[in-house]
Amino acid sequence: MIRTVAMHLKETQEKTLSSRPTLVHVTGIQANASADEKIKAIQNAATAATDFSWLTQGDSVFIKPAMNSGKMYPATTDPLAIIALIRLLKEKGARRIVLGDLAGIKDVRFYKDFLHGSTRSIMEQTGIAQATLQERGEVVCFEEAGWDGFYPETPLKGTHWKNPLMVPSLLKDMDHIVLLPRCARHLMAGATLGMKATVGYLRTDTKMELHRDANTFHEKIAEANTIPLLLKKQRLVLTVADKVLSTFGPNDGYATAPNPGLVIASESLLAHDMVSLGWLLENRCCTPQKELMESNDISKRFANASNRNTVFLLSRRRIASLRSEPLRKIDLKTIWDDPVLNHTFSLHDGIPQVTITPTNGSVPDELHAKLKKAVALI
Predict the structure, then answer these.
(1) Strands 23-29 and 261-266: what pairing?
(2) I need a surface site. Which of 3, 189, 262, 284 has the fewest CB within 10 A?
(3) Which residues contact residue 114 at a Cβ distance below 8 angstroms, ignoring those fewer than 6 apart?
């Protein structure tokens, strides 16, 4: 049964998530900002969101971008976010900084007995590899470790995954994780923010289960973020969103360029995604009607066809595609419509009271008020 926000409000009596911080810091980026000004804004948001007390001199940090395809930001993480964070992490004492991901199945076919395509090539197309290497970080591509370069993790909460999640063994050797998602629409998921970015860790067979058993697609995304590795090591979630992919997604669509744009940062993944989704919906309101009408991103039929094709690519078997479950397509009008967020509220037995704090005086009062309203319980 789908749990609605009304049910949560009644059952939890507006309890907050006492075990998770609920502060979200937003920093404005002016449309004419230089690269250096933008880097400074990103670093301001990061230092407002965390004091880096978790980072001891000599620690290692893994940076997880959002890099489904070779399309440029905002279809993937802004390379300036990577530059800004690597410089800041080094300043705070990080010894080894590693950035890694696994590109989507349309670009990289990664199976136990076969590999076609290259995440490294995709990273170079987006500028992510160059940004990392420029700052003397390391670039890793999960498929390069081979099928056995993954190990099983089981979500601590939820019951929708039938098998353990296969995630990169490299992560066991890293002290901390920083997540750098983007703010974008997603044809199947509705939105691709911080929680959805976790799918990039998953080996092909785990992604196969996610898409094949599509009736619980959104719930499994929420539960994937409760694997012990992430709960133990993920420290900061930061999205640069001075461009927003407001239609279709995850790779194509209309890109808005709001002025000011935002950097959204928090130690809480859930609170971050609530604000990020509010920002995405605000940008959809500013998207030309013609783009919304032509995007097909609210079509249930199109979303299901896309998911079945994804199952075919993941399994290499047409029969698996035909037997896959129908995907629940949700039209997101408010953040409370999002099944990923709603299931996460259920997993944590409550909805957080999110406090949004502008950090540099460049977020207009009207915009601040809109974001606060978007995440308010009542």
Answers:
(1) antiparallel
(2) 3
(3) none
> 147-160 burial by CB neighbour count: b if 16+ within 10 A, else e?
eeebbebebebbeb
Beta partners for residue 141, in sequence order: 101
User: Would you say residue 18 has pLDDT above 70?
Assistant: no
Report whether 81 contacts 242 (CB < 8 A): no
Check if the beta carbon of residue 260 is closer than 8 Å to that of residue 363: yes
Please report the sign of the dihedral spanned by the C-alpha atoms of residue 189, residue 191, residue 193, residue 195: negative
pLDDT in tens, 22-33: 899 999 999 999
* Cα–Cα distance measured from residue 332 to residue 277, given in angstroms and rounded to the nearest whole number: 9
CA 335-339-342 angle, 5° bins: 70
Cα atoms found within 13 Å of the Cα of residue 302, Cβ hemisphere only: 13
What secondary structure letter does DSSP report for 105? T
Place of tokens 């390069």: 144
Q: Record the tokens describing residue 19, joined without a space.
A: 């075990």
> CA of 356: how far to CAs of 70, 242, 329, in Å?
32, 17, 29
Computed on alpha carbons and rounded to an integer, the radius of gyration of the chain in Å comes to: 19
* Bridging pattern class, strands 114-116 and 109-111: antiparallel
In this predicted model, what pLDDT tens digit does every residue of 160-208 receive, in sequence order?
Answer: 999 999 999 999 999 999 999 999 999 999 999 999 999 999 999 999 9
Instruction: Lay out the sheet containing 234-241: strands in order across.
Output: 138-141, 96-101, 60-65, 176-180, 234-241, 261-266, 23-29, 355-358
Question: What confidence tier does 4 reach under pLDDT thresholds 50, 70, 90?
Answer: low
Phi then psi dihedrals of residue 365, to 5 deg = -60, -40
| Per-residue buried b or exposed e for 252-282, using 16+ beta carbons within 10 Å of the residue's own CB | ebbbbebebbbbbbbbbbbbbbbbbbbbbbb
Q: What is residue 211's predicted lDDT score, i.e. its pLDDT? A: 97
The domain spans of the chain are: 5-375
Top CATH class, 5-375: alpha beta
